Amino acid sequence: MRVKFHQSLDELKEKLLVMAGMAEQAIQRSIEAYRTRDLSICELVFRAEPSINRLEREIDQMALDLLAMEQPMAIDLRFILSVIRINADLERVGDQAVNIAVRVREMGAFANIDLPVDIPKLASLSSAMVRKSLQAFIEGDAELAESVLRLDDQVDEMNDAAFYALSSLIKEKPELTPQSLNALIIARNLERVGDHATNIAEDVIFWVRGADVRHNSNAL
């Protein structure tokens, strides 16, 4: 009986990793659309969203069924609870990708100009946080998860710098307000991706150590 239960846990983990791959791909595509201003890539992001949402529901249902039927304890219980929370964060990463694609599509109506913000660099850092947090999940590595938490400050600093640079540009050149506002919102979307990666890392720590470090860095 427990063999079947642990096989189900493995299947749940595999489904979550598929979800992670889809969310990561959506972010990569949205940034590629920004970099190239290729609106056909935006369409790929929009088309992928229903599949991400469908998989989120499947994973949630499978996790809830395991909780109801198997009544797991200790680390198995924490694993399933962590999967439910990570699943929600990955769906929201997909939402951020859609938000970015919407902004890129709006920017397509204006001239492509150089803006004082390095969106690809910010995207690279926030995406690296997501990959690292998922690697920590795959390996059950709480120390690796901790390292993700430290990266969040860098993403926040880059987002703050983008805000000040683009706000200044709007004051100096009001005619560039549409492009600047869209870039500012994209930077904010990427900062949120970093927040979701932080949440995933905190869930890995909860699963492995049984410590709830949300809003409580002293628990590390």
From TrEMBL:
InterPro entries: PhoU (IPR028366), PhoU-like_sf (IPR038078), PhoU_dom (IPR026022). It is found in: Cytoplasm. GO terms for cellular component: cytoplasm. GO terms for biological process: intracellular phosphate ion homeostasis; negative regulation of phosphate metabolic process; phosphate ion transport. It holds the Pfam family PhoU. It comes from the Bacteria. Residues 18-103, 120-204 form the PhoU domain. Keywords: Cytoplasm, Phosphate transport, Transport. Belongs to the PhoU family. Homodimer. Plays a role in the regulation of phosphate uptake. This is Phosphate-specific transport system accessory protein PhoU. It comes from Tunturiibacter lichenicola. The lineage of its organism: Bacteria, Pseudomonadati, Acidobacteriota, Terriglobia, Terriglobales.
